Amino acid sequence: MASLLAKAIVIAGMLLFGTCTVVFQKMIFSIEGEGLNGDVHSFEKPWFQTEMMFIGMFGCLFVFEGKHLIQKFFGKKAEEGHETKPGQSHFKTYLIVAIPACCDLCATALSNVGLLWIPASIWQMLRGSMTIFSAIFTK
């Protein structure tokens, strides 16, 4: 069981990095650059940020697969709490992760589009309320 200090550090980190992410996204949307014709354009490309998130998520597959190969090669058992069920294929594990990842990718794309037109503070309040309503509806 994690100590109280470790839990406090994790919570503070989530708040800090979550806030920084939104502020940096909004800053990226406000960057302007000169085009080929000399016109100034703002960098309003939410799909680019979504693509960067997708590349980051895809990079985690290499870590997961590398860990799986090391465990298979050296014959180490999986960590406690992360065992695969008997008879569960490696492909099924990918499917179990892929479905929520696709939903997360769609949600990120839509939220990045929404962040273009509303202030970051309102966006964060809406995102926080989504967590609260999800917790209410799960019970």
Automatic annotation (TrEMBL):
Arranged from A to Z, the UniProt key words for this protein are: Membrane, Transmembrane, Transmembrane helix
What is the name of the protein in this document? Integral membrane protein, putative
Higher taxonomy: Eukaryota, Amoebozoa, Evosea, Archamoebae, Mastigamoebida
TM helices/strands, residue ranges: 9-31, 51-70
One Gene Ontology cellular component term attached to this UniProt record is:
membrane
